[in-house]
Write a structure and sequence with these properties.
Elements: H1 27-39, E1 42-47, E2 53-54, E3 69-74, E4 77-86, E5 99-106, E6 113-117, E7 130-135, E8 146-151
Antiparallel strand pairs: 1-2, 1-3, 4-5, 4-7, 5-6, 7-8
Bound molecules: zinc ion (ZN).
Length: about 150
Amino acid sequence: MIDIFADVEPMVFKSGINVPYSWWAGETAERFFLALRDDKKIMGTGCSICEKVFVPPRKVCPLCFQENMAWVEVSSEGVLESFTIVERQLASLPRKAPVIFGLIRLDGADTSILHYIEDADHTDIKIGMRVAAKFSDERSGSMHDIDCFRPVR
Ligand SMILES: [Zn+2]
């Protein structure tokens, strides 16, 4: 077999692809985002069979596969289940490093959400600590309507 690329020097060009798009979030996500935007409320859906509460809300229970889900407001406070600290300023980071990403299980929910954790002293962040949502002053109906979670002290 002849290798037609044997004498080819591999070259790498950096570039970017801009693909603007939009789509309807769907009935369930729409209600979740409107509650964040208009009422600063975090909503989930609860399953009538397994009694699990999902945040973000699910239209169908991923455990029971049934659609009889009830809307439930959960707390804007919860427990930090895990976190990671990004110390390096990467181009893809929308915030100034160090950036802390945390998994937060809100009171009343059985699932966790991923969000920013902000604190004056990022070396003091601990798994199991209580955190509370800080809502953005200007909200548009997205996860960024929660600016970050901060430790409750
Ligand atoms: Zn269920």
